[in-house]
Design goal:
Layout: E1 2-3, E2 8-9, H1 15-21, H2 35-38, H3 66-77, H4 95-98, H5 102-110, H6 136-147, H7 171-176, E3 182-185, E4 189-191, E5 198-200, E6 203-206, E7 213-221, H8 226-230, E8 231-240, E9 253-259, E10 264-266, E11 271-275, E12 280-288, E13 295-297, E14 300-305, E15 314-315, E16 318-323, E17 338-339, E18 344-352, E19 357-365, E20 370-378, E21 384-390, E22 401-402, E23 410-411, E24 416-424, E25 439-440, E26 451-458, H9 461-479
Parallel strand pairs: 11-15
Antiparallel strand pairs: 1-18, 2-18, 3-14, 4-13, 5-12, 6-12, 7-10, 7-11, 7-14, 8-9, 8-12, 16-26, 17-25, 18-24, 19-22, 19-23, 19-26, 20-21, 20-24
Helix pairs in contact: 3-6, 5-6
Bound molecules: heme C.
Heme C binds near residues 108 and 261.
Amino acid sequence: MGKGHRTMGGEGNRAGRSAAAATGSRVARPVVVAGLAAALLAGAGGASAQSGAPVAPVAADTAPTFSRDVAPILQRSCQHCHQPHGIAPMSLLTYRDARPWARSIRDRVARRLMPPWHLDTTVGIRDYKNDISLTPDEIDTVVRWADAGAPQGDPADLPEPLAFPRADAWEVEAMLGRPPDFVVRSTPYHVVANGQDQWWSPELEFEGFDVPRYIRAAEFKPSYPLGIRVTHHGHAMLRGREPAEGEARPPSVRLVGMGIGKRWDLLPEGVGKLLPPGPATVRFSLHYFPVGEEVTDVAEVGVWLYPEGEVPARVTAGERQFYVDGTHRERLRASDILIPPHGHLVLEDQYVLDRPALIQSFRPHMHMRGTEMSMAALYPDGRRELLSSVNRYDHNWQIAYVYDDDAQPLLPKGTVLMLRAKWDNTAANRINPDPDQWVVFGARGVDEMSHAWIGITYLDDAEYEELAAGRSAAAEAGESQ
Ligand code: HEC
């Protein structure tokens, strides 16, 4: 993988754009463009593809009610977190639960702060497996409901209540229908009640398997309930033990990365990550943030495997780290992060793919001054496509944007993958702890960094040709309908 050219520089304050997108007023419905080809936006980073199509009024004569209109929205986009065992501060399961929060719900929803989904939904790829964002219509419904005094409506209109797994249950178990094949557990760690960030990297023994196995999924589970609150993020890396004389050390395997709002990696059926045979050490890297009470955390990583002897059709590298800040090994990491008080910074970096690749997911990582990160592809034929733009990045959340299978970027060899990060160190940044400070690289939340975790599967030429032919056939079938 070759490293490309980088640019750096301030940028005009474009906060106006995000502010406009965050108003609660009626927003024209964005054109939903199907497929990758249609999402081509040659370098138009901020272009918003909105049509003037009117929003169909939702029962214009009557205000929306909780039972009929709001409860289904809460079920799909809120209750997973807002339930008694969820990570959110209050439950939104019933009318009684939600009613006292109506004003706050209106505010958070109108400003697109809730649900946490920080992607610019008007540009780039539109289809994500884990998309919980609200459509402009749904936002409008919630706002009008709250403005009408949050009426309950007829309880007979309520949808069937949903059942949620306990927060201390494995989430992947509910999806795959079976417990993990093995669990690696940390020794206990004490997080102080008050203070600065704490880091902990326990090394844990794993006896391993005699034969190569393939990983389908892995989940990182801090202890419940307090561990979940103090854990900002965690990674688990598996490394083969010291090899015998003359033997090569097996490659490290990244089992899973978690952050608030993201606990697991589940690969599509038929895609796996190689787990080399033999004993290994699993290293957890945990970043804690004190929450005002002392917490003892024991973190666990559960791993789900393909059955012994089964080799999945495609073997993936999983989530890989692509730096945007300076990573040239000959100098200190990220000496290019230098953000003046009340200033902005934009950094770019690019990676030339020396093999074809399929991208499953995009997860930007910055800290408190980070506000935007985008990923674009410059194809060998010169076309440029904005894939995904997280334009309301919020350090409190680490969200992986997981593409629908048909929407996964399929990139030929020679594609330049372009990443762009933007920081806002002004007072306009809601979570800026202190706009008077210079900001440099560092591991604390008040320092900065920028990289993307990209779920990527490298392909050989034949695999690429086959997938590309499948996509063209699907596109043609779509056009002739
Ligand atoms: C992925 C988990 C998650 C989802 C999904 C989610 N929330 Fe939240 N919500 C949280 C967490 C955690 C907090 C507390 C931290 C914060 O305020 O950002 C929160 C805070 C809030 C608050 C502020 C509460 C206060 O103290 O004032 C409101 C209101 C809210 N959420 C409403 C919603 C609504 C409405 C939805 C769905 C449209 C939703 N949330 C979806 C996790 C979630």
